[in-house]
Amino acid sequence: MKVARIHEHGGPEVIRIDHIDIPTPGDGEVLVDTEATSFNPTELAVRQGIFQIELPHTLGWDLAGHHDGRPVVGFVDSGAAAEFTIAPTDRIVPAPQSIPLRDAAAIPLAGLTAWQVVEYVTKGQKVLINGAGGGIGSFAVQLAKRKGAYVIATASSRSTKAVHGYGADEVIDYTRQVPKTPVDVMIHLVGTPPPWPPPARELVISAAAPVEADVPTKHVVMRYNRDMLAELVEMIDAGLVTVDVTARYPLDAMAEVHRKAGEFRGKVIVATR
Ligand SMILES: NC(=O)c1ccc[n+]([C@@H]2O[C@H](COP(=O)([O-])OP(=O)(O)OC[C@H]3O[C@@H](n4cnc5c(N)ncnc54)[C@H](OP(=O)(O)O)[C@@H]3O)[C@@H](O)[C@H]2O)c1
Question: Which residues form the Enoyl reductase (ER) domain (predicted)?
């Protein structure tokens, strides 16, 4: 089978398409006939060696495919940028039926991170979501609105329309304006700290770069949660949350996707077959 992996750390050129045997699942594992994974920018740090991992490393944490003929979506540590993926049984759930299976690979990491960040938001709060144009932001704005928050989001012009579409009450173009309106909670989803003081009165939550603030800060690292993923899928099928896929690439183009990182908004799918 074909697999996109790295044997050494470095630039996008270290990504190789290898041909290896189809793996055999062990106890508590299943073999997923993989259709797609998605690109997450944290993988740039893995590729560069900022995060220590065993090599060779298969890219792609998000997984969409078939198990026993049934469409599933999931999250695997061992990499899903391959034609077949071994997944622990608790790492997959039935895929949504209302969107193409491949696009479902956009959901796990970005959706779960967004949800675990938005868990700190309560009804009626004013929330600033910084980095709303990205994969996590696309889910975070929608989930914060579902919780009854008033959402002020930052986005550049290319993402303004989409972010309004997610339900943001106000969109601030971060390339032209500094967010100054006082909010209860600020959610930070950008890989660099904000170059302005967080206007939060109660709490700053970051899933990305650490933020210095005069109020308590919280850093959220996504914890896989099967029930939460299944619930997200239900919300998508009920039309309560949309999945914003903005680009699709074949597995062979994984290095190109890494080269283009920073040019994307929304979620990017890498189809594995
Ligand atoms: N803690 C965790 O468990 C966890 C999990 C996954 C990812 N992460 C991290 O969370 C961050 C976001 O991930 P992601 O997947 O959402 O990233 P992403 O999809 O790559 O985000 C891209 C978006 O970032 C926006 N952006 C870039 N610079 C910005 C700035 N200065 N101000 C506001 N928005 C800016 C852009 O918005 P426009 O299109 O509007 O320009 C772009 O659309 C990354 O740093 C990632 O490494 C953390």
Answer: 10-270
